[in-house]
Structures are given as structure tokens and as C-alpha cells.
Amino acid sequence: LILAAERLFGERGIHAVTLKEINAAAGQRNESALHYHFGSKHALVEAILLYRVRMVDARRVELLDALLECAGKPGLRAIVHVAFGPMIELLETQEGVRFVRFLAQVLNDPDFDLPSLVLGSDFEGIARTNALVVSALGDLPPGIALQRQRFLIEMTVSSLAIWTRQHDAARERDARALFVANLFDSIVGFLSAPVSAETLAALKKAPGADRRKAGRKEAKQ
Prior knowledge:
- By secondary structure, this protein is an all-alpha fold.
- Helix 1 (about 1-10) packs across helix 6, helix 5 (about 75-90) packs antiparallel against helix 10 (about 175-190) and helix 9 runs antiparallel to helix 10.
- About 75% of the residues lie in helices and about 0% in strands.
- The protein is globular.
- The longest helix has 29 residues, at about 40-70.
């Protein structure tokens, strides 16, 4: 049920797929099987995320431990590589590509806030890399740092999903290597860009210092 839903959601969007279609795609004769196991479509989406993210995060922890064993403080590009390297590795299989496309659908669905789910996650790899990103961003105002982290998730997931729809990720290895290297360069430049006077002025007018405090707490997580 999880794999069938992931594929259909990734191809057509979450709200365009019915529970009946998922049951049929999974070969379930009992039309109430999905509702019995998950209760709702929203819970099914969360189950897919949990199923996939658990595996991806285990790989992230492995890469992170290897990075921190090296001498010296890791640079921002190395941190970005650890944070998103496991997702890049997903592109080597059709199953991984399906998950990337599914993530993009979740990102674009108004019923879900994927960046908040990621930044507030208690998965070890996500929490540790988020902390490293915040540390690497130095003296950025917390509200700006948090917003950039959200942009980072949105940009990366969208870019990966769009690229897989235009290329055969598993076969076009050289094209994929160029795309990924350039994506990481862009992410690093985006995260480390200086804050303009215009942005700082807008930040002062943004509603609520409490919002910035909440952002600081979420970013640290």
C-alpha cells in the first residue's frame, strides 16, 4: 500500500488519487484495507515519509560521522553534501526517483508544510545537519536563517523532481553529476549570500519578534 501510494501520489498529486485506486494498484481486494491500516490519506502520506526518511537519515548519519572524523570544522559545502547527498543517491534507482517526485507533491500540497516537518524533525541526521547549517551561517539574523533553510528545502526538492522528469537519472550519470555539483554550488551561494539593507529593513517591519524567537528555536532543532 505504501509503495503503490507513493508512486501514484508522485505521478499525479495527492488529491488526484483516490483510496480505491491505491488499493487496486497495491493488489488489495479488500477496498477498506487502506483505511484499516492508515485511517486517512493524510496518515498514509505521513507513513510514506516515515518509511523513506528513516532509511535516508540512517545514510545521512553515516556520512555525517565520517565528515566529523576529519580534522577541522567542516565547510558549508561539505555540510550541504552530507545533508542532501543521501537524496542524490536516491536518483540511482527508479524507487528513489519515485520518492523524490512524491516529496515534490507533498511540498506543493497546502495540507502539508514539508519544510517545517523537516526542520522540526527528531531524526538524528536531520537535526545534526540543521545545527551545522545554522552554525555555518554565523551571524545571520535568526528569522533570515530560518527562512533560508526553508528556501533550501523547497529549492532542492523541486529542482531534483523537475530534473528527474526531464532526464533518466539512473543512466545519465555525467549529466546528473553536473546538475548535482551546480545545485550544491547554488545552495552554498544562496545560503551564504550577504543580507542586504533592504532585507534587514523589511525584517524590522515583519510582524512579531516572537516569530523570530520561534524561528531561532526551530532552526536550532
